[in-house]
Amino acid sequence: MKSSTFSRFCEGLHTQRRVIHALIIRELITRFGRENIGFLWMMVEPLLFASLVSIMWRIIHGPQEHGVSIAAFVVTGYIPLTLFRHVVNRSVAIFQANSSLLYHRQIQILDFVIARFVIEMLGSMMAFLLVAVLLIAFDLFPIPADPGMMIAGWLIYCLFCFSLCLVIAPLSEMSEVLEKFIPVTTYIMIPVSGTFSMVSWLTPAFRHVMLWSPFVSGVEMMRGGIWGNRVTVYYEVWYPIALSMVLSFIGLALIRYVRRSLVVE
Amino acid sequence: MIVCENLSKSYRVGHGRKHVLCDVNLQISKSDKIAFLGRNGAGKSTLIRLLGGVEMPTSGIIRRSMSVSWPLGFNGGFQGSLTGYDNARFIARIYNKPYQYVREFVEEFTELGRQLAMPVKTYSSGMRARLAFALSLAIEFDCYLIDEIILVGDAQFRAKCQYELFDKRGDRGFVLASHDMGIIREFCNRAVIVGGQNAIVTDDVEGAVAHYERS
Fold first, then answer.
1. Residue B142 distance to chain A (closest CA, Å)
2. Cβ B31 vs Cβ B173: under 8 Å
3. What is the four-CA torsion angle of A36, A40, A41, A46, rounded to 10 degrees?
4. pLDDT interval class at B49 (50, 70, 90)
5. Closest Cβ opposite residue B56 in set A15, A22, A259
6. Is A2 helix (H, G, I), strand (E, B) or coil?
């Protein structure tokens, strides 16, 4: 009995992997088409954002600030920020938009959220890699001192973004008011996103407050991994993970609840 | 076997609820050929959608112990902005079938030719029906859920559908929601009269058709 439950679970995992793969390809084709660079468009927006804003900052603030290259500083802040804004905006009404696919029983509405998140995450990572390599070539970006730390920070940031999507996607289905508030909320959150500041620039009292934001921990870890000893970073590891777990749990319960009453055209 | 126990479905309409189905009990065996009879809006499509797992019942359980197709109807199941080929590839992926086979089957069955490389949203309902039906036949199910779709299209296509489904796959079951009493009389061995929030099963297809035509 136990082994049959386990084999059914494995079979389910295989099905879900196939479905997510199919959904990702479908989304890439519908969003970016097959012409010119095709799916590579997924990294264009984060790429443009990060590079243009860093050029702007470079002109306004000079080559360095607080002892680090300003171009690299802006890039490490902007790539995570665009990921956050994109995945949150794309989670809104995601179930209704894809509802015609629910005709196929093996597709779960959770798979829509996962597929879109994976696309945005891969796009951001490709953009980051490309910008970093270019900037390293011009000596504007340090070779990461501790790549493991950088990746860990990125993963924590992504985990938290994903858990937010899991909550926002079903909530947007339950209330249309939410949709109106999301753009302004993501904008207001910029100061606590860790994009434009580092915790060490603040007074000790403020540092404590900033670390309540899981984004800040993620970005600080990434920057700590990139500059190593040249910057002082403050971060929490378990608090963002625990918060993500709680949010995911709430999100999964909400998704289950929403699925029961979802009306498919 | 599909077993439905105490199935109810209601939709929220404004501040109230519209009850479509109430306490429906239904069993569909592996080789049953069932007709769903009922007026427009009686709940035939809703029941088919519940059987196919597209929507969830408000209360009650559905147990499926055979493979059941997705509801084959005029909409749903496709991504309009994708081409026929892309939709075929998507379906082959999620149902774990070799794309080469699905593609050849669809080309042969639908006879849509170069139209298959156009977005599905540009198709007429007859063309959509061909594609949906071809895909579901390529995947092979134990039980097909057919919501009117077989009845669109020209005589030649209808003959082709009937050959593929009723002759070649005579051992499979299907659920057919239709207003065409000729087909129902000819091919179905059981009937379900849907109406008044209920669904009543009978083995007497003739009697059910007569009852439906009187009402």
1. 15
2. yes
3. -150
4. very high
5. A259
6. helix
B54 φ, ψ (degrees, to nearest 5): -75, -45
Residues 5-44 of B with CB under 8 A from A: 11-12
Q: Is B177 helix (H, G, I), strand (E, B) or coil?
A: strand
Answer left, alpha or beta for residue B153, where phi above 0 means left and psi between -120 and 50 means alpha: left
CA distance A71 to B63: 59
Task: Look up residue A23 and give its two tokens.
Answer: 């959904």
Task: Give the count of beta carbons closer than 10 Å to the beta carbon of residue A261.
Answer: 14
Q: H or E element: which one contains B202? A: strand B198-202
Separation between Cα atoms, residue A115 and residue A19, nearest integer Å: 9
**Nearest C-alpha neighbor of A213 from the set A231, A229, A197:** A197
Contacts with B184 (C-beta within 8 Å, 6 or more apart), sequence order: B35, B37, B176, B178, B191, B205, B209
Q: Once rounded to an integer, what is the mean pLDDT over residues A167-187?
A: 88
| Residue A1: pLDDT over 70 | no
| CA B67 and chain centroid, separation | 13
Instruction: Note whether B101 and B53 are within 8 A (CB).
Output: no
The CA-based diameter of chain A, rounded to the nearest angstrom, is 67
The reported pTM is 0.91
Min distance B131 CA to chain A CA atoms (Å): 15
